[in-house]
Amino acid sequence: MPAVICPGACTDLSATGALTYLWMPGNLSGSTVNVCPNINTLYTVTGTSAQGCTATGTVSVTIASLPVVSANASAANICVGGCTDITASGADTYSWLPGGLTGTSVNVCPVVTTIYTVTGTSTDGCTDTEIVTVSVTPIPVITTYATNDTLCFGQSTGLSAGGANNFQWQPGGMPGSSINVTPDATTTYTVTGDVNGCTASGSITVNVYPYPVISFSADKMAGCEDLLVQFTDLSNFNDATWYWEFGDNTFSYLKDPLHLFTEPGIYDVSLTMTTIYGCTSSFNWQDMITVYKLPEAEFVFVPESATELEPTVWFYDRSIGASAWEWNFGDFLSLDNNSNLQNPIHIYADTGIFNVMLVVMADNGCPDTAWHSLYVAPNVAVFVPNAFTPNDDLQNPNFICKGEGIDWSTFEMRIYDRWGKQLLFTNDHETGWDGKYNGVEMPQDVYTWLISFIDIRLKKHNLKGIVTLVK
């Protein structure tokens, strides 16, 4: 029977019934021969018996047609994790490598770019091969970046993306690898991009924080110079820094500062707050604090040293900026110890040191006080005898100085004879001189005395005189 082979293939031809065999074409010998014809060929075999008798037979070898296999992929480019169908035609059966799959169409899910080889076989057993390449693109990794991801309300920032192409941002539907946004509130932006049709997404959050709303108060807004004011921040924003300016070239970083205004004037006070997110607001309260000038209290009095016999003192106001006066003369034994006259007169009821106080008030209500001490001295009197009789009759036996208004602790007395010899020096004003020198009685004569002391007005007295010693 005829043999069918594929082009380029070979087949064995066999004969029986004779002793020797000759095949034509090819001039081949043997009961079995292998032939590889290129075209359809009719082979004739001549068999010879042992007696030399011959006979012939024929066998045809037909060259079958080779199948022409073609293959393609429903999607020649897929993303990692994707699948595609690869399909072959032109044969009767198909075998795919790698994978060992069979069938006209198979579904493959390669993780890397892969070349698939399909072998198609015809009904005659002839084969053909074809390849199909499935390219696998990795899923892109999209990176995002913000010029500043922490904003204050109304500020803008740039957003950028990389790692893919054909970027699209949401919200807003803005295209491009770099965009500029001004969100009204904290917003998460999502960007989608692709590489060879493989898409991926990235996101970035832009935080939006409010500006501090500044409000503050003071425990007093007007007063006299050296005005101590407690300022209080009312914004209720604890995560911030504070910068106060008080209008007098001073400042503070405290939340609730205590400030002393030392000069009169009208002051603007401003507060600048910066949150931990860098959002800064300022508020300037114009003419917030008024500091009034103090009057300057001062007075003089005449006489500067009053006495027990002349206790009347005239007081004269020398204040600046005063419109009201309140005097206290320090004379607490007097029923008339106070006055609201500008220039009063007071009669002191006793001697001593008196602390006089003047409180003045300006039209703006600011006070000032002045103090001065005034001394009303008692009378000062000195009594020195001009003779004494140390003769044991107990009548004027000693020369003694007496008086009032004297500070006796400062008393000194010296006695001299007519030739200038000092006969006595004593601080004892009560004993005086007994008319003796070194225990010896002095004769009747005229003697010179020197007496010194300080009175209770702190005035020093140096007195000189003579005394007659009478026997």
Summarize the structure.
The chain is 0% helix and 57% strand. The chain has 471 residues and is mainly β.
Question: Which features would summarize this protein structure in a list?
Answer:
mainly beta, 0% helix, five-stranded mixed beta sheet, 6 domains, 471 residues, Immunoglobulin-like, 48 strands
Count of individual domains: 6
Range of strand content = over 45%
The profile of the biggest β sheet is: 5 strands, mixed
Largest sheet: spatial strand order: 1-7-6-3-4
CATH topology of the largest domain: Immunoglobulin-like
Computed Rg = 68 Å
Helix content: under 10%
Determine the number of helices (DSSP H or I, runs of at least 4 residues).
Answer: 0
Write down how many β-strands occur, each being a DSSP E stretch of 2 or more residues: 48
| Structural shape | rod-shaped
Structural account:
The protein has 471 residues and is mainly beta. It is built from no helices and 48 strands. A hairpin with a 3-residue loop joins β19 and β20 (174-175). The radius of gyration is 68 Å and the shape is rod-shaped.
